[in-house]
Design a protein that fits this description.
alpha/beta, seven-stranded parallel sheet, three-stranded parallel sheet, 10 strands, binds S-adenosyl-L-homocysteine
């Protein structure tokens, strides 16, 4: 079937998705343009911001792709103080970002859980709860997820990393700390508690096929998640998966494949929030713009104090590590206007798909 015919279909089957992910050149452009059109029709040209606070690089996990894995001795470990996190949130509020995302290496000890709970209460006190809060703090018990929800977090990001169990265990150690089914259970718990739940995958992993990527997109649709984050895999020299760096698609191919994943998902789930991940910008200076033009509608400018950023290198050469928050702010505004988009300031920018479902 020709690309145009597939693009005219109401519902995409797996073989349609694989065909769209295989498109190149003009056919790929057709796909991207259709996705942009769908996004503009359903969500307008708005871009939502989440000020990203990278709370700590201390992690009890050892994911085979991640630069801050516990088995990497070359990382100087840090944790922001409660005051530092609240200061970052204040800055987000001053800059008009409307919401923050707190991300961290995974810890589940009581001290950590309590600290996050206190931070949530304090952020909620800023201007009478005007900031939205997304958490990305890995796998926790249902009770902890519930506690943080009650303390004011309303969105949670937990990428499945791959919905294919076999591939999951090729990119994670096989032990009780890296359990595919536990991760699935966590996503289900987040959904049932009432978080706007986000998940996602890396694109261009070793052993990943277009069929597997198509299944990832179908997984997002079946789970009916509110948000998705997908970015290119970037091999980190201090990780086991670096051994396969010469066996993965080229930088350009990974970029294009990520854009196609975003575009196809925009057709499948027109009203979800989709982030233009920083990893896109890391491998291509225009990567975030390209992701926005392929259907993404969220950007997460980094608000982590600059002195810590060099230590939160989940992948190498991360973009904007030396930018000051104020610089990011004006840079982003100009960049989004240049591609006909408008940043919506002072708003939570909730997922329209989620809002409609829960009304
Ligand atoms: N500990 C949290 C946050 C992880 S960092 C959690 O487990 O959810 C956020 C995301 O960065 C991960 O989910 C992963 O998809 C992505 N990531 C990690 N290493 C990467 C790499 N080398 N290249 C590209 N993305 C990577």
């Amino acid at each position: 079937m020709r690309t145009q015919e597939i693009l005219n279909k109401e519902y995409l089957e797996k073989n349609d998705i694989v065909a769209l992910l295989s498109t190149q050149e003009d056919e790929m452009k057709l796909l991207i343009n259709k996705a942009l059109k769908v996004k503009l029709a359903r969500l307008d040209n708005y871009v939502h911001l989440r000020g990203l606070i990278e709370l700590s690089n201390i992690c009890r996990k050892s994911c085979l792709y991640c630069g801050v894995r516990s088995d990497n001795p070359n990382v100087e470990r840090y944790t922001l103080s409660e005051d530092e996190v609240v200061e970052c949130a204040r800055l987000a509020h001053q800059l008009g970002y409307g919401s923050v995302a707190i991300q961290s290496g995974e810890r589940s000890d009581k001290e950590f859980v309590d600290k996050i709970t206190r931070i949530l209460h304090r952020i909620k006190q800023i201007d009478n709860g005007s900031l939205g809060i997304t958490l990305s703090l890995g796998e926790q018990s249902e009770e902890v997820y519930r506690r943080w929800f009650e303390a004011g977090a309303h969105r949670y990001l937990l990428r499945i990393e791959s919905s294919n169990e076999e591939l999951y265990y090729k990119i994670h150690p096989q032990n009780e700390r890296h359990d595919f089914h536990k991760r699935l259970d966590c996503i289900d718990a987040l959904l049932s508690i009432g978080y706007q739940t986000g998940t996602g995958v890396m694109v261009g992993l070793p052993f990943q096929t277009l069929e597997i990527l198509a299944d990832d997109l179908i997984f997002f649709r079946e789970k009916d998640v509110a948000m998705v984050g997908m970015g290119p895999f970037i091999p980190h020299p201090d990780t086991p998966l670096y051994a396969y760096a010469d066996q993965i698609p080229s930088v350009k191919e990974r970029m294009n494949l990520t854009l196609k994943m975003i575009a196809v998902l925009r057709l499948m789930m027109p009203e979800i929030n989709m982030v233009a991940a920083t990893a896109n910008q890391t491998i291509d200076p225009m990567g975030r713009e390209k992701a926005i033009m392929a259907g993404a509608n969220v950007i997460m400018p980094n608000l982590t104090p600059n002195k810590y950023r060099e230590d939160y290198l989940i992948y190498p050469d991360k973009a904007c590590v030396s930018d000051k928050p104020e610089e990011c702010f004006s840079c982003l505004d100009i960049r989004m206007k240049a591609i006909g988009h408008e940043i919506l300031y002072n708003a939570w920018g909730d997922s329209v798909a989620f809002t409609k479902k829960t009304k």
